[in-house]
Amino acid sequence: xxxxxxxxxxxxxxxxxxxxxxxxxxxxxxxxxxxxxxxxxxxxxxxxxxxxxxxxxxxxxxxxxxxxxxxxxxxxxxxxxxxxxxxxxxxxxxxxxxxxxxxxxxxxxxxxxxxxxxxxxxxxxxxxxxxxxxxxxxxxxxxxxxxxxxxxxxxxxxxxxxxxxxxxxxxxxxxxxxxxxxxxxxxxxxxxxxxxxxxxxxxxxxxxxxxxxxxxxxxxxxxxxxxxxxxxxxxxxxxxxxxxxxxxxxxxxx
Length: 254
Hints:
- By secondary structure, the chain is α/β, with parallel strands linked by helices.
- It contains seven helices and ten strands.
- α3 crosses α4 and α4 runs parallel beside α5.
C-alpha cells in the first residue's frame, strides 16, 4: 500500500502516516495497535475509502479502492446508528445500494438481526437498546452489506466487560462461516488481551509519522485464554513492541 497521509493545519502539514504497507490474506483477522494519536483510525478510514491518502493506494483483490464501496464495511466505536430508525431499518440501510424490493430488504435485514441474536428487537429504536445490543445491530448492518472486508474501530471499547467478552467469543465464528461473504477482518484496538484473543496477526505502528515497525503472527489454538502461559508470552512480546513504538514516537514511558 505504501500509504502516507498528513493533516493540513495552520502551522503546515502534520505528517501522520509514512509508507504504511501490509497485506491481509483470506480468512485472516488482523489487528492494528499503536500508541494513542499514531493514526490507527485514520489508516482504517483510508482502507475503507473514507479518506484519500497523500500517496500510496489500497488494493482490494487487486483493484484500487478509490472511495466508499459495499465490498468494505466498517463498524465504529460509537455504533453510528441512526437514532430515528428502528434496529431493522438501521440494518436495511446497508441494503439500499442493492436492487431489491422493500420486502426483500426486510427479509434480509431480519435474517442478519437474527444472526446476531436480535430477531425479537427489530422494532426497537437505538435509545431502547443496551450498548451490547446497539453494537450487535451495527454488526448486523455491516454483515448485511455482504462485504469482502470488515473493518472494526475499537468495536468493544464502549461495552461493559461481560458484554464485550460475550461478543468477542461470538464474532469470529459469526463472520468466518460458510454463509458469510467476509474474507478478512482488520480491527483497531488498544486492548492487547483482546487483540491476542481474536487475531491471527498484529500490525504494530510506531514513530511520528507512523510506519509499520512489527508484524506479529499469533499462533495459538482457539478458544484462547489469558491464563495460558503461551498467551502471556505473546502479551509480553506485544508490550515490548508497543514500548518500542512509544520510544520511536517520542512518547515518555511511565
